[in-house]
């Protein structure tokens, strides 16, 4: 009697939710940051000060973006491990997650100012604004360095990796360069969603068995 292999269909859908998450993040990321850039046209300090004074829908989207990013990075590590036996970038991915958690922590500024008195906020406003900007710029620079290192490691193994991962590595390298430049970081609004769509395609494609040493 023939035995039905029920595990194979399930394996094909192991990365369905990561694929959906990556695609959703690719859509929400540019929408959120474009609106933030446009609202900050009067100046960075004024924009940050206004942003941390209230809790709004944009703050909820900010949290969702950060959580989706963390989930996608964890799924990236898992698929590289499971399907390609590629574990060289595990530490880098964990560091990327740590950077996102630190950046996400700035939401507590908004929470505190929403419950603090106006006087208390005015006293600490310059410190909060400076700290929020420092965390944002610092996170951007560290993320750029990590993205470049991730891309270099992937590209060094490019002959052994499927094409889709090479495309992802190139986009990640470009993203890292613009993040590291700080001045031209707005280009990431285009590059990051593009790399996410490639990553979503990688999540949703049929698994390949590639053994890397």
Which regions have little confidence, pLDDT < 50, spanning 5+ residues? 1-10, 209-213
Please describe the biggest sheet, giving its number of strands, its sense, and whether it closes into a barrel. Answer: none
Q: Please report the number of helical segments.
A: 9
Q: SS-based structural class? A: mainly alpha
Q: How far apart are the termini?
A: 39 Å
Rg is: 20 Å
Helix-strand pattern: HHHHHHHHH
Please, what is the oligomeric state?
single chain
Query: How many strands?
Result: 0
Measured by DSSP, the beta-strand proportion falls in under 5%
**Shape type:** elongated
* Average pLDDT over all residues: 86
Portion in helices? over 70%
Number of domains: 1
Protein name: DUF4386 family protein
Keywords: Membrane, Transmembrane, Transmembrane helix
Transmembrane segments: 15-35, 55-76, 88-109, 129-154, 161-178, 184-204
Organism: Arenicella chitinivorans
Furnish the topology, listing elements before pairings.
Elements: H1 7-12, H2 16-39, H3 44-51, H4 57-84, H5 90-104, H6 107-115, H7 118-156, H8 163-181, H9 188-204
Helix pairs in contact: 2-4, 2-9, 3-7, 4-5, 5-7, 7-8, 8-9
């Amino acid at each position: 009697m023939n035995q039905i292999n029920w595990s194979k269909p399930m394996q094909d859908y192991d990365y369905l939710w990561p694929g959906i998450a990556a695609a959703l993040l690719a859509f929400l990321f540019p929408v959120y940051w474009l609106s933030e850039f446009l609202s900050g046209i009067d100046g960075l300090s004024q924009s940050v000060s206004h942003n941390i004074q209230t809790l709004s829908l944009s703050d909820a989207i900010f949290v969702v973006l950060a959580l989706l990013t963390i989930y996608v990075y964890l799924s990236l590590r898992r698929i590289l491990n499971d399907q390609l036996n590629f574990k060289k970038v595990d530490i880098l991915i964990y560091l990327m997650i740590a950077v996102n958690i630190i950046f996400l922590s700035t939401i507590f500024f908004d929470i505190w100012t929403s419950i603090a008195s106006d006087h208390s906020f005015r006293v600490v406003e310059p410190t909060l604004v400076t700290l929020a900007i420092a965390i944002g710029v610092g996170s951007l620079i560290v993320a750029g360095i990590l993205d470049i290192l991730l891309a270099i490691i992937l590209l060094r193994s490019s002959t052994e990796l499927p094409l889709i991962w090479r495309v992802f590595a190139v986009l990640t390298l470009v993203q890292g360069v613009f993040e590291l430049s700080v001045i031209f970081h707005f280009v990431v609004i285009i590059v990051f969603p593009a790399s996410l769509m490639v990553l979503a395609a990688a999540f949703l494609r049929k698994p390949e068995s590639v053994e890397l040493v």
